[in-house]
From TrEMBL:
TM region positions: 12-32, 108-132
GO cellular component: a single term: membrane
Pfam family, one: Lig_chan
Cell location: Membrane
Every Ionotropic glutamate receptor C-terminal domain range: 5-118
GO MF annotations, alphabetized: ligand-gated monoatomic ion channel activity
InterPro entries the record matches: Ionotropic_Glu_rcpt, Iontro_rcpt_C
Organism: Escallonia herrerae
Gene3D superfamilies, per the entry: 1.10.287.70
Name of the protein in question: Ionotropic glutamate receptor C-terminal domain-containing protein
Main location: membrane
Domain of life: Eukaryota
Amino acid sequence: MSLSVEEKVVSNLARFVVIIWCFVVLILTQSYTASLTSMLTIRQLEPTFTSVFPKGSPLVPDVSRAVLSVTEGEKMVQIEKAWFGEKTNCPDDTSASLASSSLSLNSFWGLFLIVGVASSIALIILTSTLVFEHRHTLMHFVSEIYGYILDRR
C-alpha cells in the first residue's frame, strides 16, 4: 500500500484510518503467507512409502511394519526418555489433524469489525467537526430555505 507523493494526508483522522488499514493489510498478508507455508509444509511431512515403491508393491506393508516396530519399540522409548524426558500433559497426538484450516472472511471478522468501527468513528467525528465549524453558514442556508418556503405559501 503506497501513497502518491502528491497526496498528503493532513487530517489526523485520515492518518488514524490509514494506520489501521496498514495494520489490516499487514495481518492479512502475514496470515495468508503462514497458511500457505503451513499447507505446503504439511504435505511434505506426511509419511508415504508409495513414492519409494511402485504402486501395489508387496514390500510396502513389510516396510511399514518394520518402521512401526522401530519407532514403537522399547529402544525408541529409551532414546526418547533419554533425550526428551518423561511425557508432559500434552494433548493426544492421534487427535491432531494434519490438515490445515483454510482462511476465510470468518477468520478475520474481528479485524474487519475493528476497522469498520474505527472508520465509522472517524467519519462521525469529521462530520461533527465540519458541521460545528460551518454552523453559521448552515444556519443562514436553512433560514433562507425556510424563508423561501414561507414566501411561496
